[in-house]
Amino acid sequence: MAIEVRDLRRSYGEVEAVRGVSFEVARGEVFCLLGPNGAGKTTTVEILEGYRERSGGEVSVLGFDPAHGERGMRERVGIVLQQCGIQRDLSVAELLEMYGRYHLRPRPIDEVLELVELGAKRDERVQELSGGQRRRLDLALALIGDPELIFLDEPTTGFDPAARHAAWSAIRSLRALGKTMFLTTHFMDEAQQLADRVAIMRDGEIIALGSPDELGGRDARPAEIRFALPRGLTLEDLPLMPYERCLVDGERALIVTAEPVVALQLLTGWAIDHELALGHLSVSQPTLEDIYLELTGSVQDNPSRQEAIA
Amino acid sequence: MSLVSGSTARVDLRRDLGLVGWQIRYEQRAYWRNRGRGLFTFVFPLMFLVIFASLDKGNHISALGGIPYDDFLVPGILAYAVIATTFTNLSIQTAILRDQGVLKRMQGTPLPRWAYVAARIASTVLVTGVMALVVIVAGIVVWGLHFRIGALPGVIVTLLLGAAAFTTLGIGLVRFVPNAETGPVVVSLIVLPISFISNVWFPTNSLPSALRQIAGVFPIKALADGLQYAFDPRNHGAGLDRSALQTLAIWTVIGIYLMLRFLRRPQGEQV
């Protein structure tokens, strides 16, 4: 195991930010901690990185207790913090050289620059870099020591879509190199795209843990068939289908069914027989986002979202 | 077994000292590249030297046994210059590095914390050395500062002990600086009032004794006194002002204590 956490607790005065969290991360795994702001993600990850003290529980990172701040751990761990300054008056290459010296076996500077696609900015000073380039330099500085385990705290917050996809491909190539990664994010698609396993955190507790496809029983949930109901027809005109729920809102119809194959066959057969076009026909599983909003209770706080589902 | 671990510890220490050497080079490169910072540290003391020295028309200070005014002023400005390059500079810069998260980033690397702090202090002392040389040479050439080779140990020891006290105090102060913006305010609130009663700008013999006693507690007066003693044309010997050096030594111990208090907590807890 790369990381083992048992009953981790942290309180700030009266406030309990982390309330008994347990999980394990295997070597070579990409593990993602997902949750709304204030859920305790950053407190958890900073305890694992050794930046914060814990109030209780057991933590092991590559066999080290991060509270002891041992050099052996820092030699093997790379950290990308949420917002973190870099010495301003040095160039990209100088910084990589400087941070590389701290490690016993640094990776070659040009190799790291290529991995984060920053080769063209080699001799630029930090203050001349754009926000996205600086974030890539963050990643480069975390990789220069060739770490086994990489912590990424909201690595793509503030990125445009192109930069986000570039960062994802960098993370995927690290995964291909066998690196273990611990990621926090509040982007569903990021967790879906990158993570082997996702833990959803809310109010200092992990409320769901599993692969992005299985989380919250997502793969076992009924499918949703959506289409535009042809003019002049009502719910009663539809053929008999196995379904859990069937809703019509104006023109739009939604059928929630555990047997989408059978339901779809009956629906499309009926439509062909009656020469009806079913506009906007689609079949989908609930997305990770639907599960997340349901689990974190954000649906209730957001009425427009509820309407969008119906 | 103990022999083996002893030799690896020695290898580690040698490697770490090498890292300190490299880090000093990077700190120096970054320091001199930032023109604004260099100018700020260098121009102020020299400007004060020119302004205050121009007030003098060959005066002698009767309260100090009739020594030339410049033999008092140049060491006083030298003391101010040491404080500006060490205490002021380090506390303001460290508060900025803390707020920007650079200290946090450094904490996450395998570079030992002591090595990073040692390199920043050493780099600062190098700048202070350059600054002191500029002030002393300008003092001798332009204002006829009296300087005896025999008093060189006094000059060097006082400067080094002053640098030790004010670098450690500067880093220790950061614990009391809530954020980077208030850094210059906090530093000025400490340095300016105390320097006015500490023989830096003018002789303080005519001040009320209560004020002089307050000034006597702090290291600014000790540094100014120590340097003025070393440059005093009436003195003989090595130029070592024992009571001033004693005060500076005590403040170095306090500085190291405060510095360690600041550095001990992990950076994530320092918000």
Structural key phrases:
heterodimer; A: 310 residues; alpha/beta; Rossmann fold; Alpha-Beta Plaits; 2 domains; six-stranded mixed β-sheet; four-stranded antiparallel β-sheet; elongated; B: 271 residues; mainly alpha; 10 helices; globular
Q: What's the gist of this structure?
A:
The complex is a heterodimer of chains A (310) and B (271). With 310 residues, chain A is of the alpha/beta class.
What is the strand and helix layout of this fold?
The complex is a heterodimer of chains A (310) and B (271).
Chain A: E1 3-12, E2 15-25, E3 30-34, H1 41-49, E4 56-61, H2 71-76, E5 77-80, H3 92-101, H4 109-115, H5 131-143, E6 149-153, H6 161-176, E7 180-185, H7 188-194, E8 197-202, E9 205-210, E10 223-228, E11 245-249, E12 252-257, H8 260-273, E13 279-284, H9 288-296, H10 298-301, H11 303-309
Parallel strand pairs in A: 3-7, 3-8, 5-6, 6-7
Antiparallel strand pairs in A: 1-2, 1-4, 8-9, 10-12, 10-13, 11-12
Chain B: H1 2-33, H2 35-55, E1 60-61, E2 67-68, H3 69-100, H4 102-107, H5 113-143, H6 152-173, H7 183-196, H8 209-217, H9 219-231, H10 242-264
Antiparallel strand pairs in B: 1-2
Give structural notes:
The complex is a heterodimer of chains A (310) and B (271). Chain A has 310 residues and is α/β, with parallel strands linked by helices. Chain A has helices at 41-49, 71-76, 92-101, 109-115, 131-143, 161-176, 188-194, 260-273, 288-296, 298-301, 303-309; strands at residues 3-12, 15-25, 30-34, 56-61, 77-80, 149-153, 180-185, 197-202, 205-210, 223-228, 245-249, 252-257, 279-284. Chain A folds into 2 domains: 3-217, Rossmann fold (3-Layer(aba) Sandwich), CATH 3.40.50.300; 218-309, Alpha-Beta Plaits. Chain A has a 6-stranded mixed sheet with strand order 5-6-7-3-8-9, with helices on both faces. Chain A has a 4-stranded antiparallel sheet with strand order 11-12-10-13, covered by helices on one side. Chain A has a 3-stranded antiparallel sheet with strand order 2-1-4, covered by helices on one side. The radius of gyration of chain A is 24 Å and the shape is elongated. Chain A starts with a strand and ends with a helix. Chain B is built from 10 helices and 2 strands; from the N terminus they run ααββαααααααα. The mean pLDDT of chain B is 90. Chain B has one domain (21-269). In chain B, helix 1 (2-33) crosses helix 5 (113-143), helix 5 (113-143) packs across helix 6 (152-173) and helix 6 runs parallel beside helix 10. The interface between A and B is medium-sized, with 30 and 26 residues.
